[in-house]
């Protein structure tokens, strides 16, 4: 049955349409991503106050999963967190006419005519109309209404507050993303991440209207010295999904403390879905498979154990058994089987494998698959066109325009524009964050990058935004150097600005709409929106403190707990310390006796994101348990004053007038070692934390480096 707008709603949209025809000047603030169209109207705007109501159209409150009502409740939580209006009315289901006693945000469905650039209809679009009494968001689907709430929140954040509060300008608008796939990939196989951190990344990305989180969940480090030698089994590898007890694939995940249980992954998917983000899991085979051959060595190629031998009779049944275990975990309609960087001389085996897995996964779950674009020089076989190709290497492994001419659907992950590597890359191949010059002016014509751009050198190898086989784009951050290269927060620092500019380019494109952002506009608003992104605190910001002092104690004789788990840089942590000279501690045993064991001096400060040890003044990342020593030994017979300074790019200590830097060494493909700075959040929850036995004075933590 065709939805008919209520009389009041139809009237408001009719007025907005007429004003649009009159050509009134736009007055909304530029935001990220940019809005497709908005026309201002005369009259007072919409006030945001503690009495603002949020009403969901009762005819659609249970539509979708998440439902429109679910999205409305999350929107209310975000509005409270950004305004501090803790007494904001609870979300109601009803009609617009029944909620006119105070200004109301009204969420409904029924918007039509919303299409991606390729002309395919989408439920991600929305119309909105703003007046003094109502802010109406009319989605083409629940997800469209959700994106409309992101627009409202961003406008609220960017609007200058007056003595009367925040008022959003009156008018009407319409907005639709240019492409269906707008997302990011995180290599969670070569670096361990807790589910809570991954959920926070989803929440952050959603604020900039990204809707895909591709998780690369199995892989290994690559070092030719190990791969081709007898010690290949000690090279780090991981499979992140913890098999159920007694599972036939239990041996695949020996690092139990570095895996996600099914319940944890379900919670992660739900947290992302609540923000409009879908997780696409990737289990990478037949290459990048050292985690499998460590478990079953007979399945590897003899000289390259990170590649599976597809002609071995047990190989494909084993891979199917892995998918049988985890397919029921996944809520997405698609999964990635990776399938990149295999042996080109075995192209027919590779193509047969991809096609067989596509058919098998579809039969078992109804899901379709994606693979990375890979060189497959076969003259007899080809990958089925129902497999989406995620292009990443032009022209070495795939040429997207040629693939689309053959009927393949393409996702753009071209490394020239869209690859990052944790902390650093091989000889500067990839930037620390997405190259802003490339993103804003990297097309052959000097225009900005967009999902239809695969190369900056030859426009004939790019396509149009309207190409029906171009699904969108996914940027990627790899962790080629493993757990010791970065902390999770350092990964966020690389992603933060990158996700925002990527959100603009995958929503609005380049050169398609005249409302798209300029680089100057983006730069003028990004910091404000980054700081305001609701639902998470990846910046580890703390409320304003007098004189920026987080805590200050003259003496600390016993463990103290502060109000903050972690404080993000920049900060200055100062203390005077005299560690105990004891080198052993007594540990009780089960039989009632005890034994003396070596003692490293304990932990001075502890927090969610870091710990500071006495021994070598090492910072520890509690997620990976990796320690980063300062290469300084605290004397036990004198008092030493330590002054720690931190920014997002480095952390260093000043001791006796000399600077010492926390560093890590990165093994670059086994060819050379590369030093890199480390940045740590301040460990601010516990002072005189775990096992510390010494004297601690003049302790202070102050914002600013």
Secondary structure topology:
Blueprint: H1 7-22, E1 37-40, E2 46-48, E3 53-57, H2 68-83, E4 92-94, E5 104-109, E6 126-130, E7 134-139, H3 142-158, E8 166-168, E9 171-175, E10 181-187, H4 195-207, E11 212-216, E12 218-220, H5 224-227, E13 237-239, H6 262-273, E14 278-285, H7 290-295, E15 300-301, E16 304-308, H8 315-326, E17 334-338, H9 347-365, E18 368-372, E19 388-391, H10 400-405, E20 410-412, H11 415-418, E21 419-421, H12 436-441, E22 470-478, H13 488-508, H14 519-532, E23 549-555, E24 560-561, E25 566-567, E26 571-579, E27 584-588, E28 594-598, E29 603-606, E30 611-613, E31 619-621, E32 626-628, E33 640-646, E34 651-655, E35 658-661, E36 663-668, E37 672-677, E38 682-683, E39 686-687, E40 694-703
Parallel strand pairs: 3-4, 3-5, 5-7, 10-11, 10-22, 11-14, 14-17, 17-18, 18-19, 19-20, 20-22, 21-22
Antiparallel strand pairs: 1-9, 2-8, 6-7, 6-9, 12-13, 15-16, 23-40, 24-39, 25-38, 26-33, 26-40, 27-28, 29-30, 29-39, 30-31, 31-32, 33-34, 34-35, 36-37
Helix pairs in contact: 2-3, 4-6, 4-13, 8-9
